């Protein structure tokens, strides 16, 4: 075979600097929403050591504007110029522990996703610096020249600047107008509704910073202090917290902790709705991934399990350090990540065990309620791998009534009960129970009906040798009576008293 002589590539170099206009316009579409954009700006404030972050949204002004003011470290002019640069930091460089940043992009890309004019005012050691990127100005000039403003006292938001700290100001909010460019009222209404959605997101994402008697950070929205929403309901006495499991990896530790939320009956409606969020508990079960205490993923099993009604109280907190960003494929918005294979393996086992136990607890609870009750109203019958619910024709209330009926009507009465059982609307019940289980309740009973039921059950039980003292316990094992126990107990008392007299 003939050997070709070695030849070097002949290369030339030409200038291919990106076009400022196209690149910066492209930075508007990383896929941020108002809440993820605000979170990215707040990340910077927290990293800068701020104790207070104030969001001001002037939605009613002629030219609506938004400011995020913090009392963090502030920046020198040189630092500010660097901060305004796209890609101000190298994503592959090591970050200090607790640094919430990674890409050197967030300040710019989050801001441009919402506005066309970003101004940053900052003060350190008594010196105020101010810089601005105005996309319309860049569009005219098509060059990377940053505006420095030497009389910052004239800039909107200047009055919000503390002795040391930073104010990020968004103007020309073209993406937040909701299309109502000429209708100020409608535009303000739209922006306010966006802000109330964002508010919940911020309360959730930064909840660990906002919690406790001495919170690490105070977060204000138009002067109102935001309260944390803890998706693990950790401080609720009825929340079940499993011990922490630590996965030690080369890049750092992953800490996993399973939580079972309290049953909705053990929480106030407000608490329940708050941690369920707009999507509800079914959709909110799953993994909650925290990066340096900041929530980046809220719910969903990332392919490790299915979201089922039986597991909707299961939530697993997964804590990761910022040293694992590359493995977790953290995105610029800090709103998504992927499980690294070694974590996936381990987490899969944890999830299977946790979710499996939870399903078994629910199932056995359901069976026990029917099987162990003496004289249930419904019988649970298991047959050929199927489960049917049948009205219990032997229940004293049905039996004693049937016995009073003439022979010819007795059969008809029992047929009616059987039809009620066979007509149980299984599909509708199923549909209602998925996602909305706590809203499905049993119908009310009249006082008279309850009285007849308690008395006939008590009579039958006593005829079957149950002592009067044991009646309350036995009757309470009946779920129907247990949920109405206050009224039932009173009826039982009266019943026993009249029997004695
Ligand atoms: N509020 C602030 N206070 C002090 N310094 C800030 C503030 N906001 C931004 N900076 C500085 O500007 C830099 C650039 O911020 P930017 O959000 O663009 O990138 P990042 O936070 O480094 O990474 P990421 O793209 O992951 O957010 C920060 O690294 C920080 O040094
Ligand atoms: Mg940042």
TrEMBL record:
<dbReference type="Pfam" id="PF13589">
    <property type="entry name" value="HATPase_c_3"/>
</dbReference>
<keyword id="KW-0547">Nucleotide-binding</keyword>
<dbReference type="InterPro" id="IPR036890">
    <property type="entry name" value="HATPase_C_sf"/>
</dbReference>
<dbReference type="GO" id="GO:0005524">
    <property type="term" value="F:ATP binding"/>
</dbReference>
<keyword id="KW-0067">ATP-binding</keyword>
<protein>
    <submittedName>
        <fullName>ATP-binding protein</fullName>
    </submittedName>
</protein>
């Amino acid at each position: 075979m003939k050997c070709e002589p070695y030849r070097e590539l002949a290369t030339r170099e030409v200038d291919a600097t990106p076009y400022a206009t196209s690149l910066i316009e492209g930075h508007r579409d990383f896929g941020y929403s108002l809440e993820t954009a605000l979170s990215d700006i707040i990340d910077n404030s927290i990293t800068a050591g701020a104790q207070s972050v104030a969001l001001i949204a002037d939605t009613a002004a002629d030219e609506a504007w938004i400011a995020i003011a913090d009392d963090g470290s502030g920046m020198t002019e040189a630092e500010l110029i660097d901060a305004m640069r796209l890609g101000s930091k190298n994503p592959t460089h090591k970050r200090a522990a607790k640094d919430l940043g990674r890409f050197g992009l967030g300040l710019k890309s989050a801001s441009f996703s919402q506005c066309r004019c970003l101004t940053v005012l900052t003060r350190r050691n008594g010196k105020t610096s101010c810089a601005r990127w105005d996309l319309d100005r860049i569009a005219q000039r098509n060059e990377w020249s940053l505006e420095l403003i030497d009389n910052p006292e004239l800039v909107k938001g200047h009055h919000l600047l503390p002795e040391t700290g930073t104010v990020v100001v968004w103007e020309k909010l073209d993406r937040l107008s909701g299309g109502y460019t000429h209708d100020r009222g409608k535009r303000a209404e739209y922006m306010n509704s966006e802000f109330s959605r964002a508010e919940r997101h911020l309360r959730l994402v930064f909840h660990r910073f906002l919690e406790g008697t001495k919170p690490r950070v105070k977060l204000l929205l138009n002067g109102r202090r935001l309260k944390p929403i803890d998706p693990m309901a950790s401080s609720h006495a009825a929340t079940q917290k499993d011990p922490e499991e630590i996965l030690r990896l080369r890049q750092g530790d992953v800490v996993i902790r399973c939580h079972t939320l309290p049953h909705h009956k053990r929480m106030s409606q407000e608490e329940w709705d708050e941690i369920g969020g707009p999507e509800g508990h079914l959709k909110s079960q799953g993994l909650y991934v925290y990066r340096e205490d900041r929530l980046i993923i809220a719910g969903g099993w990332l392919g490790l399990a299915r979201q089922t009604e039986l597991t909707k109280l299961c939530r697993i907190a997964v804590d990761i350090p910022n040293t694992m960003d590359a493995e977790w494929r953290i995105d610029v918005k800090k709103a998504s990540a992927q499980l690294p294979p070694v974590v996936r393996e381990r987490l899969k086992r944890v999830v299977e065990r946790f979710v499996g136990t939870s399903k078994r607890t629910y199932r056995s609870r359901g069976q026990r309620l029917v099987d162990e009750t003496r004289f249930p109203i419904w019988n649970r019958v298991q047959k050929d791998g199927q489960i049917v619910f049948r009205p219990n024709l032997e229940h004293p209330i049905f039996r004693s009534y049937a016995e009073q009926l003439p022979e010819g009507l007795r059969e008809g009465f029992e047929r009616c009960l059987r039809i009620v059982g066979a007509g149980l609307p299984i599909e509708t019940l199923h549909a209602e129970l998925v996602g909305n289980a706590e809203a499905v309740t049993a119908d009310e009973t009249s006082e008279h009906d309850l009285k007849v039921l308690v008395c006939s059950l008590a009579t039958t039980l006593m005829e079957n040798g149950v002592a009067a003292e044991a009646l309350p316990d036995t009757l309470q094992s009946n779920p129907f009576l247990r949920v109405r126990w206050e009224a039932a107990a009173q009826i039982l008392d009266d019943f026993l008293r009249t029997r004695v007299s």
